[in-house]
Amino acid sequence: MEIILKQDVQGLGSKDDIAKVKDGYGRNYLIPQGMAVVATESAKKVMAENTRQRAHKEAKLKDEALVVAGKLKDIKVSIGAKTSTAGKIFGSVNNIQLAEVIAEQGIDIERKNITMAKDGVKEVGTHTAKIKLHREVVVDFEFEVVSE
Q1: Using CA of residue 88, residue 90, residue 95, residue 97, what is the dihedral sign?
Q2: Within this chain, do residues 141 and 90 fall inside the same structural domain, yes or no?
């Protein structure tokens, strides 16, 4: 029996793959669980059209992410923090504060897409964060932490 997977199934394939499985496995498990549909000619055509449209949308999103990445390369950001005389920050600078400062520059980035040091930045100086704009577009963003 040929099926079209609606989601990733370990050991069988990923979403939108066409797979051959035994009749019982397909009819009694995959189809009732909503993991797959029978691969009829019309279902294959629908899947092909959906894949084509998804690829077009994906390319558009990637292009937009590349434009934002270009803007991020031109921005210089400073984050002020209260510090001790030795240059240690009271608390830490985290991805929330970095997202807010970047938003002030006119670029909205969700904080969950910003990856910094595990515990945040705890010292004054220049640091780097990774910003994931798209599945294939990740930008290394430099920012400076200064004493207030």
Answers
A1: negative
A2: yes
DSSP state of 9: B
DSSP string, the chain: -EEEESS-BTTTB-TT-EEE--HHHIIIIITTTTSEEE--HHHHHHHHHHHHHHHHHHHHHHHHHHHHHHHHHH---EEEE-B-TTSEEEEEE-HHHHHHHHHHTT----GGGEE--TT-EEESEEEEEEEEEETTEEEEEEEEEEE-
Can you give the pTM of this predicted structure?
0.67
Number of domains in the chain: 2
Q: How far apart are CA 144 and CA 146, in angstroms?
A: 6
Mapped onto helix, strand or coil, the DSSP state of residue 96 is helix
Token pair in block for residue 68: 């934002």
Identify the H or E element spanning 101. helix 95-104
pLDDT in tens, 51-81: 899 899 999 999 999 999 999 988 889 998 8
Q: Do 78 and 136 sit in the same domain of this protein?
A: yes
